[in-house]
Amino acid sequence: MKIDCPFAVEILTAFIREELSKFGYNKGILGLSGGLDSTVCAFLAGRALGPENVIGLIMPYGKSSAEDVRDAIQAAERMKIRHEVIDIAPMVDAYFERYPSDSRVRRGNKMARERMSILYDFSAREKALILGTSNKSELLIGYGTIHGDLASAINPMGDLYKTQVRQLAAYLKVPLKIRRKVPSAGLWKGQTDEGEIGLTYAELDEILFHLVDERESREELLARGYAKDKIEKILGMIKNSEFKRKLPPIPKISARTIGHDFLYPYDWDR
Amino acid sequence: MKIALAQISPRLGNIQKNLELHLETIEKARRQKVRLLVFPELSLTGYLLKDLVETVALDGRTSPVFKTLRAQSRDLSLVVGFVEEKPKNKGLFYNSAAFLDKGRVLHIHRKVFLPTSGMFEEGRFFAAGRNFRTFEAPGGNTGLLICRDFLHYAASYLLFAGGSEILIVISAAPGRGLAGKAGFATSRMWELMGEAISRFSSAFVIYCNRVGLEDGIVFAGGSFIFDPFGRRLAQARYFEKDLVVYDLDLGEIRKARKNWPWKRDDKPEVILESLRRIVRDYED
To answer: Of A38, A219, A234, A252, which has the fewest CB atoms closer than 10 Å, so is most exposed?
Structure first.
């Protein structure tokens, strides 16, 4: 689980730089929440592209997360990246006025997609590609909003567990306050990742590492002493979130079908 | 001999559910006095397994699933498809077909030709079998093939040369290309092969394909039986679940081989020597 941070940073910054330049971009844009993942991603982007080529959009819902907004602004200033605060409350409220809902999941997902929608518009406006900030832990258990925070052009930290993002954060000297924050998707007040998932990231990442990276079976994990209910829970979350990691299936009826046997590289002639 | 083709749609990655589906189908066939019931390729696991392959692997000789199926085979023979991991070949997974009869595993064929191109990626997940063997079954000398094996016509020839009078092909063939008439364009390809191989081997060809969808892949169905004269005896529906029951007249094998002496006039030793020379002289 321990990574060599200088080497990882070298690879990830090269990736960001290359992928953007292959598609004719030199600027990156991302949502900044004031949390760990987006801040680490902004640090990486700053190193890869130069801080003047990174735009951080801070998109709170009203005044619900004033402290996170302050932290995000502070981090952006420290990194010397461009940033802008956009309150999404008017757009989200306008929608729920017509289609009211008390469901915090629906409201939270709507907010995540509102942010996505703004990011894509700013992407066109600023000629900047969207950097995703999802980590491997979240992606594997499907802890993210499809077409919301899961939407991006490239996803530099998608193969790093949360625990490893933390290591990078320390190496990159991300402000201590952000590193010490309790991880939260920020979809509603008091929401915490670990509370919602029902496991600490330390437990989750260890089990995921054995299951995914080491290809161990549930029996082997039991033999390692992990609790059965935790293993089953994680396996269930992985199984039920595959749709968030794939493009929608297309029924194959022709001789050549997108996604099945029409297979070209992303970096085709780039 | 009454045979049945179970054109089913297994549940991807769930052996227990698929075993139940097999037992239900066996019961239906038994009520119709079927003597040989053929299931499609990977009938116990589903097809598009990818990284699930290792989680559904079974040992055909010892697993409890096979114990149940063997017990079912006391009064009717079964052909089932499964992912096989042999105790002496740990970590190697085969796309296998087992012939069960009278409570025993009579034969296991391991798919030799693993399609790995276009939409297929079996070579990424499976080890390839290395043999085409024939065996004595209640209906006569029999050979098993799995899906793509059947499209490499040398495979059928080897079973013919080995004496097979009955070729059983189990398949999970996706349909591709709209044909302008019912069924997929690729269904014609299988039917053409079935007709040609049955006719020129003077053998029965029993082809059992599956139906259903997995991640957008559409399994085409259209299972069929050709007799030793190359005549189509039965055909299942395209794309829909079906159970085709047909009473084979095994006497047709003798009739066909008398009239059309492909078997009598075959020269396996000439073919073998020619192959040796061809292989020896191969250039890149």
So the answer is: A219
Dist. CA A133–CA A136, nearest whole Å? 10
Rounded Cα distance, B32 and A120, in Å: 62
- Bridge-based pairing of strands B242-247 and B2-7 is antiparallel
Boundaries of domain holding A143: 5-179
Distance CA A83, CA A77 (A): 8
Verify whether the Cβ–Cβ distance A253 to B215 is below 8 Å. Answer: no
Tell me which residue of A137, A100, A124, A130 sits closest to A213, measured CA to CA.
A137
Q: Which of B158, B151, B217, B163 is nearest to B188 (CA)?
A: B151
Is residue A236 in a domain?
Answer: no
Of B56, B142, B64, B68, the C-alpha closest to B106 is B142
Nearest C-alpha in B relative to A246: B215
- Return the half-sphere exposure (C-beta side, CA atoms, 13 A cut-off) of residue A45: 37
CA distance B14 to A222: 21
CATH of the domain at A104: 3.40.50.620
Beta strands in chain A (DSSP E): 28-31, 54-58, 82-85, 129-130
Q: What structural domains and CATH numbers belong to chain B?
A: 2-280 (3.60.110.10)
Chain B nearest CA to A142, separation (Å):
18
Domain count, chain A: 1
Which pair of tokens denotes residue B39?
């299931």
Give A 190-249 residues with CB within 8 A of chain B. 215, 217, 249
A193 belongs to a structural domain: no
Q: Which of B28, B36, B27, B26 is nearest to B3 (CA)?
A: B36
- As given in the structure block, the two tokens for residue A203 are 């437990």
Q: Note whether B119 contacts A257, CB cutoff 8 Å.
A: yes
Residue type, A1: M
Q: Is residue A61 part of a domain?
A: yes
Give domain status of residue A261, yes or no.
Answer: no
If we measure between CA atoms, which residue out of B219, B223, B183, B184 comes closest to residue B205?
B223
Give the best residue of A231, A260, A262 to mutate against chain B (max B CB count within 10 A): A260
Rounded Cα–Cα distance for residues A262 and B219 (Å): 19
Instruction: Provide the 3-class DSSP secondary structure of residue A162.
Output: helix
> Do A255 and B185 lie within an 8 Å CB cutoff?
yes
Residues pairing with B96 in the sheet = B82, B110
Task: For chain B, say whether A252 makes contact (Cβ under 8 Å).
Answer: yes
The answer for residues whose C-beta is within 8 angstroms of residue A219's C-beta and 6 or more apart is none
**Segment B217-252, tens digit of pLDDT:** 999 999 999 999 999 999 999 999 999 999 999 999
